[in-house]
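Course exercise 7: structure representation. Students receive a sequence record and must write out the corresponding structure in token form. The form below is the worked example handed out in class, using LLM class flavin-dependent oxidoreductase (354 residues). Read each field label carefully; the graders check that inputs and outputs are placed in the correct fields and that the protein name is recorded exactly as given.

STUDENT ID: A-19
EXERCISE PROTEIN: LLM class flavin-dependent oxidoreductase
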Amino acid sequence: MSAGPVPHKEFGTFLPIGNGGWIMSETAPHPQATYAYNRQAALAAERTGLDFVMSMAKWRGYGGRTDHWGQTLESMTMTAALAEATERVQVWATVHTNLFHPALVAKMFATLDQVSGGRCGMNVVVGAYEDEFAQMGQWREDFTHDDRYRYTQEWMRLVDRLWTEDSVTHHGEFFTLDDCRSRPHPARRPTLIAAGTSPAGLRFQAAHCDGSFLTAPDLPGLRRANDEVKALAAGQGRSIRTYAMLTVVLEETDAAARAAFAEYGRGYDREAITAMKLSWGLPLERAMSMTAGDEAHEAFQTAVVVGGPDSVTEQVLELVGQTGLDGVMLVFPDYLRDLPVFGELVLPRLRAQT
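STUDENT ANSWER:
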């Protein structure tokens, strides 16, 4: 998936393109949605030796006391700038297929291929959260979950054709192209990745993508999702790499890390968290319910490892060892403080053992 030899396990970071990063709390660090901050984080990731940086696409925040993700940058534009600012690290941008025509995206990523010297990747997202797109008049009430993936299948095939064919004519269910031309073609096909564990999502990833971001409530669930998408890809004569997201609360000692985790959790933004869950389509009563006796975890949008360098190393090794994942996308409370420490005290040990 990368321009050079691919390590056995890849480690990257999910950039804080939205204010607040990935912790929904008044008492956690609050990264700002600025290019300056994200540029510093991307350069720190490169100096640290991470393999990739990725940014999400988000068009509407969740409010609350923290105005979580009320301010966001645009992923493809920012990635083009980061491609120029960096030299080695892979740069992956997110595209919502329901907002961008395939001919536009084909041209944008052919450009990004040149800017990055072949280091770019596309995170393909099937827009699913109604409020983000209804505000623009870009939400189709008649589309089911499977309809959105059928649409994205056609969208993806057209992008691939435009990257390789001089002229594309297509009269399909969702798109019409007549002698559509998009040159130059990318010198190297951008890395394609997608997320999701629904049957339709896994089938799409297995058919089109180089990488799959997976979620599950526990390690056995991640193992099952890892095995399933790899089997689906193998059935089509393809291979696919698998990843999961992980928040790292890293301090000098386990006790200090536990204290930081508790402090970040103490200020959880219940209003923003509820709005996020409602965007997933959960009923209001369920969205408003908290994890009984463990409210601190509600502030975090991913699985979390907490500890000093030894403990964090052991927990990450357990994650990749038990699940078969090929990589981990890391989230940090304070990227500019935490990334260098992780790179010095944890990443070399992960590299040595994976």
